[in-house]
Amino acid sequence: MKKLLSATAVSNPTWYADERVIFHGQAKPYDYYGAKDPTIVYYGGKYHVFYTGANQGGGWQMLYTSASTISGLKNAARTYMSSIGENYFCAPQVFYFEPKKLWYLVYQDGTHGAAYATTTNIADPKSWSGPKSFGISGNMGWDYFVICDNSYAYMYNTPSDGSGKLYVRRTSLSNFPTGWGSPSVAISDTFEGANVYKSLADGKYYLVIEDQKDGRYYELWQSGSAGGPWSKVAEKWAWRGNLQYKADRWTTNVSHGEFIRAGYNQKMEINDINRVDFLIQGTNNLSGPYQKINWDLGVIRNYK
Predict the structure, then answer these.
(1) Which of 95, 157, 100 is closest to 122 using CA atoms?
(2) I want to staple 159 with a disulfide (CB 3.0 to 4.6 A). Which of 3, 38, 141, 183 is the partner?
(3) Bond from prior residue into 289 cis (ω within 30 degrees of 0)
(4) Residue 5 has what pLDDT?
(5) How many domains does one find in the chain?
């Protein structure tokens, strides 16, 4: 096994944008305006991507696609997640929860607010069972994200009150997906779309979260624990000012995305925070109603 070197997070890396691989309008009517909020894992020889489509009627609905390569996603079939379908179900996160031997899809919906679905077969988009409730209350909103260590599951989310805060709550692994404690503030003066990962190179946990003080961009925070406390590494870790293009100049915004992980389980592990493949939603135009923004998906990397 190749030894991973200890790494200190680079606060202002250069990012290289590859071409878009998922375009809005490829799965009409579900993604008429936008393809956004992706979650991705590599499993069984394929990249599995779940994402949100913005339709003409004001709905946000989830889609699935898969391919053996990232570039292969461009022409892969898109499938509406009909088995768990609602007018409003979006912003997914997918992982395999080893203690229960089940795939979990975490998302926000109109039935429970914070919802999940499960399956034993990630490759079958019609096999998901849900929506089911996490049973949480207090400071709810959107962009729910779960990471686990050896004892606890932690859930992060942005509240709907516009406070600029990010909340975290936890439950024991044995009680997951229910039994959550009260939420507490993880960080403040930020926006939405938080993800947390453990970097195998240095053993630290890294939180990335989107802000919008200068277009859309990502902050970087670090901690010795999956639940915090968090210290800021960079306000503008991934943003248009350090973005270069390997293909067309398809985005000047780095918005809601997810890292391609080293594995696929609940621990959310990456190899190295300085060698990240980041599947993001991007656009060059943020004007007009949010529902009608033409988001597409593509990978940016902080290494050559």
Answers:
(1) 95
(2) 141
(3) no
(4) 52
(5) 1
Q: For position 81, which CATH number holds?
A: 2.115.10.20
Residue at 255 is within a domain? yes
Beta bridge partners of 146: 155
Those residues whose C-beta lies under 8 Å from the C-beta of residue 270, and which sit 6 or more positions away, are 197, 198, 199, 200, 206, 259, 261, 262, 276
Question: Residue 278 burial by CB count (10 A; 0-12/13-18/19+): exposed, middle or buried?
Answer: buried
Strands 296-301 and 269-270 turn out to be unpaired
Would you say residue 15 lies in a domain? Answer: no
pLDDT confidence of residue 137? 93
Output the CA–CA distances (angstroms, integers) from residue 87 to 13, 54, 90, 221, in the order listed.
39, 10, 9, 34
Residues in a beta bridge with 166: 187
Angle at CA 25, nearest 5°, toward 110 and 297?
80
Which residues of the chain have a pLDDT value below 50?
1-3
Tell me, yes or no, whether 7 lies in a domain: no
With contact defined as beta carbons under 8 Å apart, do 115 and 133 qualify?
yes
* Contact criterion met (CB below 8 Å) for 95 and 146: yes
